[in-house]
Sequence to fold (362 residues):
Amino acid sequence: MRPLIALLLLAATACASGQTAGVPTAAPQPPIEIKVVVISMFEQGADTGDAPGEFQFWVEREHLDQVLPFPQGYHDLRLNPRTGVLGLLAGVGTARAAASVMALGLDPRLDLTHAYFLVAGIGGIDPAAGSLASAVWNDWIVDGDLAYEIDAREIPNATAADRALWTTGYVPLRKNVPYEQPLDPANIAVYHLNPMLVDWAYTLTKDIAIPDPPELKAIRSQFDGTAAHRPPFVLKGTNLSASTFWHGQLMNRWAEDWVKYMTGGMGSYAICGMEDTGTLQSLTFLANAHKVDLNRVLVLRTASNYDVPRNGLSAAESIAQTKLGHYSAFLPALDAAYRVGHVVVDSIVEHWAEDRDRPPGS
Fold:
């Protein structure tokens, strides 16, 4: 009886471990090595075949045909298993983007340790920096949400010394007046992207011809400034990231001043977005856990609209006309994000033997 008992015990052990006696289980699949993660924030409908948002051109043109269920994030992932390019639709707003990127970084199906991250989205451009459909490689990402605020109508009667500061009711966290010195790094969210990688991406794409349909020229003529009148072009500049969609000449002045303050004068405001500090915060935490490499992050924002009204229009009238899908350069900006961004993505994939272990430009 003892041999029979031993055999029964062996069979029971095999069943408890998920094996059938004599039939080994399949070996666990290794995680998929990802070369580039393209992060978009919104889509209007389906991923393909209808009115596009930020995600659709990437899905269709990079052949991100494989769907990976992603219930822990905002939207299912899309993968091209041949190229190793992964698409993440992170959701609108800092909170959704931060949660989706963190969930991606902790997904055991994926190996992101050598992956590059390209945030590719649209935004409102400063007419002093660029023009409609222009593409901005971001050097700094500056948070515009962490602050104190009083209604601008309640700005105090400042002394002569402080009057230049009280141009806004926005006060840095833990400070008493706008732009108070010294800047406290512990109470701000500012991210300086790898300068060598940003310069490499800019140099690679700066001569790309971005289409300039006649309607854009007509709109540009209604704004002031040499840069605002230029056909679309590729540039570098700082991104002010805030979940509140702001607009107007006074807010534009605040954005320019806020970026200078938050970067110690090293950043120059060019374009605004909504999600990028959330994305960078999650990537920073993931880098601390050795899940990703923060030196491999790029942010590309293309201009779907100006952040100020056209001549003769008030801020209230202008923002009433500035709605998703109806921005003055909505479709050209979506196309420009792919047209410029895919050159960087394709280069990394093509030169993966070198770029896997060392970022280009370094």
In short: The radius of gyration is 24 Å. Residues 1-21 have pLDDT under 50 and may be disordered. The chain has one domain: 31-143+190-243+267-355.
